[in-house]
Amino acid sequence: MIVGVPAETAPNEKRVAITPAVAEDLVGDGHEVAIETGAGEPANYHDEQYEAVGCTVLDDRDTVFEQADIVLQVQALGAATDGIAPYDEGQVVVGLLGPYDITDTQLETLSDQSVSAFALELMPRISRAQSMDALSSQASLGGYQACLLAAEELPKMFPMEMTAAGTIRPAEVFVIGAGVAGLKAIATAERLGADTRGHDVRLEVKQEVESLGADFVELDLETEGSGDEEGYAVEMGEEFYAEQRRQMQRVVPESDVIITTAAIPGRPAPEIVTAEMIEEMDAGSVIVDIAAPTGGNCEPTVAGETVEHAGVTIHGPTNLPSQMSKTASEQYANNLQHFLENLLGEDGNIDFDFEDEIIDSTLLVHDGTVRNPHLEDGVNET
Amino acid sequence: MIVGVPAETAPNEKRVAITPAVAEDLVGDGHEVAIETGAGEPANYHDEQYEAVGCTVLDDRDTVFEQADIVLQVQALGAATDGIAPYDEGQVVVGLLGPYDITDTQLETLSDQSVSAFALELMPRISRAQSMDALSSQASLGGYQACLLAAEELPKMFPMEMTAAGTIRPAEVFVIGAGVAGLKAIATAERLGADTRGHDVRLEVKQEVESLGADFVELDLETEGSGDEEGYAVEMGEEFYAEQRRQMQRVVPESDVIITTAAIPGRPAPEIVTAEMIEEMDAGSVIVDIAAPTGGNCEPTVAGETVEHAGVTIHGPTNLPSQMSKTASEQYANNLQHFLENLLGEDGNIDFDFEDEIIDSTLLVHDGTVRNPHLEDGVNET
């Protein structure tokens, strides 16, 4: 197989879909790897490193698409507002395809191109697929980075210190949403010595939060049915969120840092922190709203921007993992490698085995048909 | 006594010399506190908080100087390139006065104003003075902030992680100079899980570095006489630094992050990391040169700027503690409070007791005379 890796085109995307280490393994398994020149540069992987492990570095982007049997990308649709990459008929595309936001036009184009497009976001949460779960690997990095961003910007120290000049009280960090990103934010805040609290509507994560050394903020809410069978949060009714907001009113004002991570696959993020609550916080406090790309958990959040409300800084980052481009690319490329191993099977040929839950769940478009598997299974439908 | 606190005027100075908590204590001790309106704002302390503890908030800056018996400042000379604050005859001024950089003209002006100016930088390193040691309290915050800056910017994670997508190796952090700032940078990097190494010409700090969990990088150098009687590093000969650089060549290229903190009071910082060494580092690596204000420990460092050399980002921050304005102001105000307690004595009146090492060492100008105590004692003279 010829594996092609074009440079990423989405704005501020610094990750690359393949690392020299993964490329070396693929070449060792008898595949060819063709990579666009400079594709690894934003992640500090250089053309020479790819060449050294046997990749072909191509100057011309289109040639990558022409040659490849399988195209590996990070953001597969990239900045393609005015079109989709020049995929070839029968080509396999693997990447983050934004299956919840993809337009019908884009789906039709992919289907017209007759490509087989795998959306890694639709990876089933089964143990066999953990090593391919790019959402998790990247969310973990996002949680870490969100915590560092807040720590660096807060006009207070995170850790408690007993100094000759007096005791420094620890910063109060509150993490809302204890999925992969939230748990990593909690772990990082704890590492730095902050007084950390976590909250999630799914009471079953309480123990995980506490095992990291943080306190779990339990609200007096009816939370049955708040997680789906895969452990993702599901959308609750507006009455539920209203009550959640009312109860949050007592926790938010005491916090120096709030990191919100409450996203629901395929749905707008619930608004949990209101402008009114933020007004009760100390000036200089910092919020990082990781749910910004789907609307944010905080009323004033603007995706891709940093805004201020009542002296509180609210970050709405849309691609935190990209800021840690080297580690993020490493993890992502490893995810892809495991995915390819499963897809290619023993003989190294592509095997569209629809009995395989991993293939079936992630294959968005195939053979001229829009499959959209996440709509079919109905798990995330209200 | 009337204690006056003007707003800071140095560019990017966000600290304030007094916090509401310290002001409350001073008022409780029978003093008056007059503060310029908005002086605490950059550190997120508001006029109302000062008023609530009994301070007078004054709209007019000059009135603060007119009323005060004692003026408390952070950077006492502020941005005063074209002059010095309108101090009154006999007034006591306490702050960071930059005694090593102060010009003869500035000293003469202070002397002509007949003020008594205390430079906190000249605090003797005796146990009784630890609670007043602003250099230490601020350096510690600087070391913490430098580490966070590097962690946030590095395209790799600091901690080692075992994930489903493979093992993430920890970042390699190398801290040069294990004084207060260096030790705090080491402690913070260790907290975050980096693989941390420290180096100092003073072998006696080896144990402190190792007690934080880091490795001590020992160079094969003759280091006798590298620390003065107060524990500060002293300037060594050029031959020594040449050998140090030669041996650094093997450690620097392996590092993802370098934090340099090797400053010598009253002398230019030694150049330890050359441009050539940096060229051997991985692109994307990050250097934070805390010694930037006195010339920096790295060849490409520019004070107050962020430069790039061979793909490595080199920060030359000049006031890291100010970025943590709230904690830094708290610690600084506590330092001042302890200093005032010593200066004022039991009866609450100023006591210029020259037998008191603290008074004697820090009193830069008094009674129309330029004392310049650090020049007299000769400790830092070559």
Could you give the topology of this structure?
Two copies of one chain form a homodimer.
Chain A: E1 2-5, H1 20-28, E2 32-36, H2 47-52, E3 56-58, H3 61-67, E4 70-75, E5 92-96, H4 104-112, E6 116-119, H5 134-153, E7 161-163, E8 166-168, E9 172-176, H6 180-191, E10 195-199, H7 206-211, E11 215-216, H8 238-248, E12 257-260, H9 275-279, E13 286-289, E14 306-309, E15 312-315, H10 320-323, H11 325-344, H12 357-362, E16 363-366, E17 369-370, H13 373-377
Parallel strand pairs in A: 1-2, 1-4, 2-3, 4-5, 5-6, 9-10, 9-12, 10-11, 12-13, 13-15
Antiparallel strand pairs in A: 6-16, 7-8, 14-15, 16-17
Helix pairs in contact in A: 5-6, 5-11
3D structure, described in words:
The structure is a homodimer of 382-residue chains. With 382 residues, chain A is an alpha/beta fold. The first copy, chain A, folds into 2 domains: 2-122 and 325-365, NAD(P)-binding Rossmann-like Domain (Rossmann fold, 3-Layer(aba) Sandwich); 139-322, Rossmann fold (3-Layer(aba) Sandwich). Chain A is 31% helix and 18% strand. Chain A is built from 13 helices and 17 strands. In chain A, the strands form 3 sheets. An 8-stranded mixed beta sheet of chain A has the order 3-2-1-4-5-6-16-17, with helices on both faces. A 7-stranded mixed beta sheet of chain A has the order 11-10-9-12-13-15-14. A two-stranded antiparallel sheet of chain A has the order 7-8. In chain A, strand 9, helix 6 and strand 10 form a beta-alpha-beta unit. In chain A, helix 5 runs parallel beside helix 6 and helix 5 runs antiparallel to helix 11. Chain A is globular. At the A-B interface, helix 5 and helix 11 of A face helix 5 and helix 11 of B.
